[in-house]
Specification:
Strand content: 15-25%
Number of helices: 17
Shape: globular
CATH topology of the largest domain: nicotinate phosphoribosyltransferase
Structural class: alpha/beta
Number of strands: 21
Largest sheet: 7 strands, antiparallel
CATH architecture of the largest domain: Alpha-Beta Barrel
Distance between the termini: 49 Å
CATH superfamily of the largest domain: nicotinate phosphoribosyltransferase
Helix content: 25-40%
Strand order of the largest sheet: 13-12-1-5-3-19-20
Number of domains: 2
CATH class of the largest domain: Alpha Beta
Length: about 475
């Protein structure tokens, strides 16, 4: 679960490139790499950045052990033994900047920036993408679910369906950042301080001779946290009537049952009927919890049908992001050092969307002071500090005739220093502060950018310097054909 040492959590071609750099005397050449993604998941209007905590732990513990080197020596590439001496000395000595976790982020803007020897920067690509792609995806899915249930309790129930233990643990953390309230996973609760919640399974009922006996025994064992699963046999004819009897018995003992859980059937109809029967029994304080293949779309539909559900247990479709299971974040070289200066580098492609934006850059969020809302994100060269300007020109990098001049703004730089010369210079916030930061982020955006269906496209614009550099390099490389 923890990143004690994950030096070999990388693709083999990273080590092969490191070897080629070393063999050709290029290992100390400094470069700038950026992490970004091209397309928002789920048709959403934004993504929620997550994964930085694991990146920090990974970088802090990065080294090659003798066991790692022995394994590499067995590979078919037949690496020169001198390469292994270089690996024994390996430590990350570069600079790393990143967006704060919980921040709303958008396509084609840098989320993480690495400035380091190419020997180091190449190694960390796979792990960083792995952490960010998964956790950002889950955090974004969680935020969508929170959108359709803004005032309800959301519980993460996905561990048994996650792609192995790490996905369950770190996916839970990402879901909490995105707006969930608790998790069923005790390991995640212990590691991250996330509240853990749980009811019981159908097996408890099946293990008893009668449903009534099962409910009474469970209430006797855990009188302060009784939520009864009522659909083992027949929800309305058996489960709920037995739960009502248990609740009334608890009242005589000075206790109150917390809720019932529905895990199958027509959740809208059943929740409406259960609410009616509970209220008629004088149990209006008993809440209704629902589970069973839920996501933002199903919850949205259930609410439209008038479902009387107070709390949602969301598992498979959250932790696996079943409808869009991969955020295609990428890691590209954008500048390389030559004679002490970082020279922009570009990747040209026959697919226009795959042409990179070159240069050593940063990104600002432009917030109108009079409205308190963001006008868009603005990518500049790192030496362009727009915070002292009175006016900037923001234009669409695809449809360049679309532009506007913005004044009266606050420019907030999104990339913050995490490592400098290999030393951590960032004080990681608590998970609660990250969660709070995410909620505050939402208030910076107009509802049109946040809506679940057909969101307006949020502007991510380039400065004229970045745009001109990009066009210059495209023309330069095309002229060589």
């Amino acid at each position: 679960m923890q990143c004690d040492n994950m030096s070999l959590h990388t693709d083999k071609y990273q080590v092969n490139m490191m070897y080629a750099y070393w063999k050709n005397g290029m290992e100390n050449k400094k470069c700038v790499f950026e992490v970004f993604f091209r397309k928002l998941p789920f048709g959403n209007g934004f993504a929620v950045f997550a994964g930085l905590e694991r990146i920090i732990s990974y970088i802090n513990n990065l080294k090659f052990t003798e066991e790692d080197i022995t394994y590499l020596a067995e590979q078919e590439e037949n690496y020169d033994p001198g390469f292994f001496d270089e690996l024994r000395k390996f430590r990350f000595s570069g600079n790393l900047k990143a967006v704060r976790e919980g921040t709303l982020v958008f396509p084609n803007e840098p989320l993480v920036q690495i400035v380091a020897r190419i020997f180091e920067a190449q190694l960390v690509e796979t792990a960083i993408l792995n952490f960010i792609n998964f956790q950002t995806l889950v955090a974004t899915k969680a935020a969508r679910i929170r959108q359709v249930a803004p005032n309800d309790v959301l519980m993460e129930f996905g561990s048994r369906r996650a792609q192995e233990a790490d996905a369950a643990i770190w996916g839970t953390r990402a879901a909490y950042i995105g707006g969930f309230d608790s998790t069923s996973n005790l390991m995640a609760g212990k590691m991250f301080g996330i509240p853990s919640k749980g009811t019981h399974a159908h097996a408890l009922v099946q293990a008893h001779d009668t449903e009534a006996e099962a409910f009474n025994n469970y209430a006797k064992a855990l009188p302060d946290n009784v939520i009864l699963l009522v659909d083992t046999y027949d929800t309305l004819k058996s489960g709920l009537p037995n739960a009502i009897k248990t609740a009334r018995h608890m009242e005589t003992m000075g206790k109150k049952m917390k809720g019932i859980r529905l895990d199958s059937g027509d959740l809208a109809f059943l929740s409406i009927e259960c609410r009616r029967m509970l209220d008629e029994a004088g149990l209006n304080y008993v809440q209704i919890v629902a589970s069973n293949e839920l996501d933002e779309n199903k919850i949205f539909d259930l609410k439209a049908q008038g479902a009387k559900i107070d709390s949602w247990g969301v598992g498979t479709r959250l932790i696996t992001c079943a409808d869009d299971p991969a955020l295609t974040g990428i890691y590209k070289l954008v500048a390389k050092e030559e004679n002490g200066v970082y020279v922009p580098a570009i990747k040209i492609s026959s697919n226009p969307e795959k042409i990179t934006t070159p240069g050593y850059k940063t990104v600002y969020r432009i917030i109108k002071k009079d409205k308190g809302k963001s006008e868009g994100d603005y990518i500049t060269m790192v030496d362009e500090d727009v915070r002292g300007l009175n006016r900037i020109k923001m234009f669409d990098p695809v449809h360049t005739w679309r532009y506007k001049y913005v004044n009266g703004f606050e420019a907030v730089e999104l990339l913050e220093p995490i490592f400098f010369n290999g030393e951590m210079v960032f004080d990681p916030p608590s998970l609660e502060k990250i969660k709070s930061h995410h909620k505050n982020q939402l208030s910076l955006f107009w509802p049109e950018y946040l809506r679940k269906l057909n969101p307006e496209v949020y502007p991510v614009d380039l400065s004229e310097s970045v745009w001109n550099t990009r066009m210059k390099l495209i023309i330069q490389y095309k002229s060589k054909e």
